[in-house]
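Why should sequence recovery work at all? Because a backbone constrains its sequence more than one might expect. Tight turns favour small or flexible residues, buried strands favour hydrophobic ones, and helices have their own preferences. The token representation captures these environments compactly. In the example below, the structure is given first.
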């Protein structure tokens, strides 16, 4: 098993719990209340700002051009595919990114984003990677599960969101980033691996709580 295989395995129970959340189940069926969905999109939009800051800190701490380019590549994705879908949903709710700036973070969002910034400021590149990867890989996992359980979701209002995280291009991005993590964490000590696994699991727990927040829990 690779480094990331082990790391993911140790947090997979949290990803499975997230995929079972009523919010995603109702989204998959196309029956999710739109106000609840819009509230989620707003909090997710707020979260993305901090997510980008964590990657920016990864760029700042990078010592090679290759590392800088890897962290910078995420900024392009958020500005293009993911951002286009999110902005479309915000528009349907009569909002723009400027409006999002005026909205307060809910507790689960506060805890998650504070964790991201703290990790980005205090840790090295492997630590930063373990803090941000559960969002990237976890989204692919939960939405693939949603699509597998409810293939009809692609014909619903929520289809574009599901498509963003289940298409071949996103799958390839996740594969490349997982390989990058394996390379950056290769040869770490047993003690350091345990520390990195704990960071990854804590981030995965924040992911679960974010989905619970989306569902009003």
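From this structural description, the recovered sequence reads:
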């Amino acid at each position: 098993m690779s480094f990331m295989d082990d790391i993911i395995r140790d947090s997979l129970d949290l990803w499975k719990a997230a995929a079972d959340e009523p919010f995603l189940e109702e989204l998959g069926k196309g029956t999710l209340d739109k106000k609840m969905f819009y509230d989620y999109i707003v909090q997710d939009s707020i979260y993305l700002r901090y997510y980008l800051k964590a990657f920016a800190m990864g760029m700042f701490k990078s010592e090679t051009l290759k590392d800088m380019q890897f962290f910078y590549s995420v900024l392009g994705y958020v500005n293009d595919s993911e951002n286009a879908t999110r902005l479309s949903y915000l528009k349907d709710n009569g909002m723009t990114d400027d409006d999002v700036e005026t909205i307060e973070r809910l507790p689960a969002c506060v805890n998650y984003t504070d964790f991201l910034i703290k990790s980005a400021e205090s840790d090295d590149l492997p630590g930063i990677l373990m803090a941000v990867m559960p969002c990237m890989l976890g989204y692919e996992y939960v939405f693939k599960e949603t699509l597998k359980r409810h293939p009809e979701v692609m014909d619903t209002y929520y289809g574009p969101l599901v498509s963003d995280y289940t298409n071949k291009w996103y799958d390839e991005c996740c594969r490349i980033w997982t390989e990058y993590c394996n390379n950056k964490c290769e040869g770490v000590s047993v003690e350091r691996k345990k520390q990195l696994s704990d960071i990854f699991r804590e981030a995965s727990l924040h992911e679960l709580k974010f989905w619970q927040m989306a569902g009003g829990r």
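A few observations help interpret the result. The mean pLDDT is 94.
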